[in-house]
Each structure stands twice: as structure tokens, then as C-alpha cells.
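Researcher: We're teaching a course module on how sequence relates to structure. For the next exercise, students receive a sequence and then see the predicted structure as C-alpha cells, so they can try to spot secondary structure elements on their own. Here is the exercise chain.
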Amino acid sequence: MKKRIETVCNKGSVPEELKNQHKGFLEWGSNVTKQNHQPIVQIVIDGRGTNAVDSDGCRLPTLVYMAREKRLGWPHHYKAGAMNALIRVSSEISNGAIILNLDCDMYANSADSIKEDLCFFMDENRGHQIAYVQHPQKFNNITKNDLYANASPALNKVELPGVGSFGAALYCGTGCFHRRASLCGSKYSEEYKGLESLETRKDDKRTVIELEEASKVLASCGYEEGTQWGKQMGLIYGCPVEDIVTGLTIQCRGWKSVYHNPDNTAFLGVAPPTLDIALVQFSRWSDGMFQIFLSKYCPFIYGHNKIKLGAQMGYCVYLLWAPSSLPHLYYAIALPLSLLHGIPLFPEVSSIWFIPFAYVFLSKNIYSIAEALICGSTFKAWWNLQRMWLIRRTTSFFFAFIDCIVRQLGLSQTTFTITAKVVTDDVSKRYQQEIMDFGSTSIMFTVIATLAMLNLFSLLVWVLKMVLCGLEYEAMEMLLSQVLLCGLMVVVNALVYEALLFRKDKGSIPASVMFKSMVFASLACLIPLKQ
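Model: And here is the predicted structure for the students to work with:
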């Protein structure tokens, strides 16, 4: 199978002999494109037949190839639209009680995951309340020290289970088992006992051709017009993170959800192998989640008296990623500038009022380190996580905040950015060696480099003043906290300086970005500030 796929990719087209084997391929003629084509449905394996067995004689499930209709001028709603078409077509062909939702870059890693998750749905006491069981997003290409902080062990083992304890586990868009009834818009009812309430179509007497023709109607682009699909049924339209808002609406209809993180990882995917891809992905997520917060689906409003207050607050931890960029960006700029101009931001080290600041800083970081180590991470991975949170909050979250506000003002429309995971061998090699990849002229890299240079300039100027001019003890004590924090910022950005000044490979920061960052940092240093 791998060789056949690689052959097709290298050739750029499906060979004629393969097309003749599958009539679904034959419908992709020269007169159709991926954005303008008819609905295509082919039942590749009919699980009802006695011949549907593998080489060992084991029964095979029904396998269906589907491409929903797309026409110019008709909105297709990206992933949410594709999911809704799949839900309708699968209802026509099999109508199975449980739906597994997996992204195309993920695969099943444990055959036992289905049996384990069915236990939740069939539990005698609570099973009828469960709408979906969400697994954590885990990846098979994480480096030893998790360079881009994709693994998030504390998130998977502490935060998300915490939200799930309120019966409101977040739907993350992949690695999720759904009860079909809840996903199709049904409100929770005591009648949903186990899985017996949903009829399957195992005894459907229609032929394969009849099923395919009936399914094509459900996959047509005009089928949803005038219906509740995308509003009350299926995945919700109009938001870049359709999964989060869909999970919220399901819970507000009375259903519960479960977060399940087994020791034997159920599903694995591919993590972003470059910094640019990782930041674009977080920008889309934070943009979409802030859009939910500003909409009628805000958990404090839409979820009022429907889900618990703890669940509402748990949602908002993530929905407010975008505006959280503002205080972080402020400190990333104000800290070095105030140090440069000798303006104290914190109490003197000898003052009793310094104790609360020191307590918060030390306790937060000690707790964070302990949490990361307990969750199976390494200290270097924790350090990489701190760097990535700084970068995300000052770039991805900030640009997402701007985009969302501009959209709320009606100056732009919602878009969906697909996260690319395919990279060259050169990029993949740097990723495995844990060498940060900056090889593009993204505006986000300009911001990262500018902030790094601003902190470096300020610290160097302070050191020069201390060496050449000699600072009094009182002046040093007043600024000691800022010196330490600015020094930490410089250490955190060590990989940025390396890419700016020393590296010569294709993953280094381009000369144009380096020039702009130095100019912007220099101009910022010239801003006059008064105490």
C-alpha cells in the first residue's frame, strides 16, 4: 500500500489500471476540479456480504469512498461541512450508533480503544448521558525534549481531565468517539439507554448502487439549504474551531462528555515540524476560540444554567488565549525599555513589598517544573515550553486577537487555514536534531527577533553603564528585579540569537528579518520615557 501511494504521489496522477478498479476514481475526469465537482460515493467494501472477509477469513467492515459535491458560489464550510456530509452518508448506509472522528494525519495506535470507549457509552448508570469520549492529541514525531512544545503532557494529564471532571470535556476535533444521536442535534433524554435506542441498517435490502445513489443526494451542496445542519445539527458552521463550539452546544443540550487518557495511547498523529507551521496553527486556534467568546456561544452566556460554572471557566481559559497576548506583549516591551531608562517597575529587593512578587514568581515556576516532571517531561522540555509560550503569546495570540477584532468590526470574513505537515528532508533533519527552524520571512519572526534584540540591547546597555560609569548600590537594588527578568528573557531567546547571528543553514533567520528586527529594536530604544 505504501509503495502504491508513493507511486501515485510521484507520478502526480492515479494510474488508469487503478481507476478502472474503482469507479469513484473514474468520476474524477479532466472536466472536474477539487473545488467544482459532483457528489461521488462508492461502497468499496459492502460489509453485509458474505464475501467481505480478509485473507484470514475475518469479516471486514463496510468501507465507503465519498467526495461531497462542491460548486462555485456554494459555501462548503471546510472541515465542518465535510464532517456533516459524512455523518449524513454514514446514516444512510450503516447508521452505526457510534462515530469515530479522526483527522487525516492521525491513525489508531491501539485496537482496544474501541472496546474501552464503548464501556463508557454502555455503563448502566451513566452511559446514557455520554455524548462523546475525547482522547488526547498525541504525536509520533515528538523530539526528545519536545522542541516546539507540541506534546503538552501537563495539558493532557492535568488541565483537560480537570475540565472533563465537570462532565464537559472539550471536543478537540479528532480522536473522539461520538454518539450519533447527540451529534445529529438530539437533546439529552433518559430514553438513551446504552446503544439499543439506535437502529442500524444491517438488514437493508437495497443494492449497493441504490445505496450509493441515495447517499449522493445527502452529499450534494444544496442539501443543507433551509435545514438545521451547521446550526443545531452536526458540526457548527462559521467558526475556525468548529470542534470546540460543537462540543459546547452538545453539552448545553444536556449531554455529558468524558476525557479519556489511557496508558496505551489510542491515537497518534503528526506534530508541526517547524516553528512557522506551529505558530500558524496556534494562531488559527486562538483566533477561533476568541471568536467563540465574543459570540452568542460565550460559555458564560450560552452555557448559563446549562453547564457548571467550573466548566464555563475551564472553557474560557482557552477562549481567552488571544487577549492574553496583550499583558505579555506589554511586559516583553516595557521591561527592557524601563531598564534601559532606569525606571523601576518593582519594589526594591530589600523592601518587604518585594516578597509577594518573589513568592509568586518562585512558587509558580517551582510548581510548573514539578508538574512537568511528574507528568513525564524533562527539564529541557519544560524550558522549551516556556520559550514557546512566550513566542505564542507575543505572536500567534496577538495576531489572532487583531484578526478577530477586525472581523468583529465587519472588515474581514472568517477563513480556514489548513496546517501543512509535509516538509523537506532538510527541515525534517533539523527538527530531529532539535534545531529551531526560522527559514521564512513571516511577520511573526520579525516580532520574535525584535523583542529578542530589544531585551539584549537593554541588558547590554545596563551592563556597560555599570562597568564604565559605576552604578550606586541603591540604583542597582532598584533595578535588580528587572535585570534578572531581562536576563531570563535573553536566556530564553538564546536559540533566536543563534539563528540571527551565528547559523548559516536554511533554517536560520533570513537577513531581511534580521535587518528589520535590529532597526525596530533600535528605534524602540530611542523612545523617550520619563519616570
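Model: If you want an answer key for the exercise: The first strand starts at residue 40 and ends at 45. The mean pLDDT is 88.
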